[in-house]
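Me: I'm a chemist; would you kindly supply a protein sequence with its structure tokens?

Assistant:
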Amino acid sequence: MPQIRESEHSESCGAKLAIVIQNPLLRSSREIATMSIRVERAAYDPENGFLYYVVFKPTLKIGVDEVQAREDIMVAISLTETEDLADLSFVVPKPLRSAQALSFICGEGGGQYVEPHVLISFGGMTGDTVVSVPGQLEIDMAGRIVGMVLQWMPSPAYPT
């Protein structure tokens, strides 16, 4: 069952943000179409850890819509005790530092852009672990960031 949370934040983008965290990732996920930013998380896999898919484009259908390019990045994420994303931050690659590229993140999604960083906070959630993880931005044919894949492999000392 998806969890829905709402948050009001982001003075620079001024949007009301609702978050959905769903399991499993990519396969047989239920769409909730009214969300600005969606976060989907796959069940823990000992080989890959946790995979998160952050959807910025409101109408994006994971695995169906065409992604034209991908850009590798490092992302700082804050996780709750149940491994939900509380917030995230990343440096936007230079070619993607335009209003058009960031339109789904700031214009519609409710994230904040403080050059060169994007900051997204999922309201009502408090992170108790902060880690840096590899991520991959997904870009559509118009040059807009439409989604992001994150992979977090907990250290052996971290209880899952």
Observations:
- The beta strands are 3-8, 16-22, 38-41, 50-55, 69-79, 85-91, 112-114, 117-121, 129-139, 145-152.
